[in-house]
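Reopening this ticket.

The earlier resolution said the output was attached, but the attachment link was broken on my side. Pasting everything inline this time so it's all in one place.
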Amino acid sequence: MSIQVKEIMAMVDHTNLNQGALVSDIEKLCSEAIENGFCSVCVHPSNVALSAKLLKGSNVKVCTVVGFPLGENQPELKALEAKMAFEAGATEIDMVISNSMVKRCDYTGLLNDVNGVQASCPSCVHKVIIETCLLTQDEIAKVSEVLATSNCDFVKTSTGFRGDGATVANVALIKSVVGDRKLIKAAGGIGGANDAIAMIEAGASRLGTSKGKLIADQLQGATVDNNNQGY
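Inline output:
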């Protein structure tokens, strides 16, 4: 079955998490998201209210990050940050787990952290960043299994701020563990259409990237098939 370009565009979280992003940068981000039919814009909490205002009346959602980028905040602070972001207009939350908890095998603490954020704004789509570049393959599999029992909606590969971002192999590994229990967001290092298609084929249903406009331009007027050709 072929993948329509508009379907790929609807998987993109168009991202600007740069320090010092200007109002004009966020305006451009939101304009591009509306123009290309992206799923959301992903911005820092400080830009949520502005993004919500700019996107009012459109189908584009406002996504923000919590505990970003290290994930080592106290769970109560992550929950509060998520609640405040929701109140400012965010409808999707991408939280970062504590990889210290993973290294200590504190999976009860990890579940409490994730579910606490979800409970603080239950109407939001909830994505959990596991920062795959800091984990072994066994740890990625174990964390994915734990998250499959949580209240989150997505397992997300990366912040894009630490080492390697998403890889096809890691997306496929997560998919092999969570199956249809959770969705997968690939983020970090998606530099163009080929990368986007490869992540989708490996099991991702959402793409976090600052290259959404480039991907849209590369796929303009094309239909993409599952063997990574035809666009």
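Reporter confirms the inline version is readable. The mean pLDDT is 94. Residues 198 and 227 are 9 Å apart (CA to CA).
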